[in-house]
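Input record, target 12 of the design panel.
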């Protein structure tokens, strides 16, 4: 069973990561939204997800509302407390881990859940 290492990472193989079921914790708008002449130029925010079991895998990323189609799109790489390891248990490193987390997020159906949470926090 994975545990939290001294450096605060949970070390998982890619297969273990793919088996983790993430649940939505919170999504909200960025507090420091840029503006031009008093009007917002973009709508952006963040979303945080975590596993239910122990140790608790945590994953978060930034998003923006695409102006041309109104869809939420991930911005940048996800952040988390996971470090991927190979079959020998050696770290694959931050670049490989972040790339795998990005692929995981991009396969998730997170947009509706995130937007519903934002809408509930900021009613029209």
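The sequence produced for target 12 reads:
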């Amino acid at each position: 069973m994975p545990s939290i290492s001294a450096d605060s990472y949970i070390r998982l193989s890619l297969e273990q990561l793919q088996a983790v079921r993430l649940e939505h914790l919170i999504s909200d708008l960025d507090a420091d939204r840029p503006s031009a002449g008093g009007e917002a130029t973009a709508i952006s925010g963040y979303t945080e997800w975590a596993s239910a079991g122990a140790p608790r895998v945590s994953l978060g990323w930034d998003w923006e509302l695409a102006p041309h189609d109104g869809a939420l799109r991930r911005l940048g790489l996800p952040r988390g407390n996971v470090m991927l390891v190979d079959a020998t248990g050696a770290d694959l490193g931050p670049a490989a881990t972040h790339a795998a987390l990005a692929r995981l997020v991009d396969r998730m159906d997170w947009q509706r859940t995130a937007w519903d949470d934002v809408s509930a926090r900021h009613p029209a």
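Strands lie at 10-12, 22-29, 35-36, 39-40, 44-51, 58-65, 72-80, 82-84.
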